[in-house]
Amino acid sequence: MVIKTDFFESAPTAQLAQKLLGVVLTVTTKAGPLRAVIVETEAYVGQLDAADHGYGGRITRKNRALFAAPGTVFTYQMHRQTLLNFVTQAVGDPQGILIRAVQPIEGLSAMTQNRPKTGPALTNGPGKLTQALGLTMVLNGRLLPETPLTLSWDPIFQPREVQTTSRIGIANKGSWTAAPLRFLVAGNPFVSKQLKRDIDLDRYGWRSNN
DNA sequence: GAGTAGATCCGCT
DNA sequence: GCGGATCTACTCA
């Protein structure tokens, strides 16, 4: 079932970020579809959140898309990487969800061409997955249905356990530094900064084998 | 396997 | 000028 844009205002952002775990992201390309399951997300919860790009309600050219309608794609560049976010909540409320890691399902050879790495290193980080999927800044500010991206639920992928931690790379932001707003599929090898001993090689953290 | 330094560039102050 | 929602290579074990 394809996720529509009203999903992105149907619950608080932290809940939506959890619901995206196990959701399949499809990128339609000339060479065919690239498909990957979302295994790690982070929630950014608005102008009070010191780690949010819309902190304080200040709108700039860079963060403008974050203030747009729910279901808008927000991309921005960081150290030469492109990071992918989906905007949540009403227009003017700068909340969003960062996609931090995905597990490839289909189009592996095309992904490897985009990013010549094997195993988890292909997509186990926010900058890595945009490279592998060929996502760039042209997506910024576009509504999901206007982009080559599709999000859909697949009953095959249900996390056995969702783990909650503080967000990565957020330092010196007071209580927001430790806020439990990062969500991941426990044991999935594509989760970023995953320790080898925590990996569930049997089921990749899903409820059943695929 | 785990931890750390350096690269590198755009947008904002 | 400065610093960031990162990545990679290099170290030590």
TrEMBL record:
One of its GO terms (molecular function) is DNA binding. Its EC number is 3.2.2.-. Keywords: DNA damage, DNA repair, Hydrolase. InterPro entries: Formyl_transferase-like_C_sf, MPG, MPG_sf. One of its GO terms (biological process) is base-excision repair. Pfam families: Pur_DNA_glyco. The keyword DNA damage applies. Belongs to the DNA glycosylase MPG family. This is Putative 3-methyladenine DNA glycosylase.
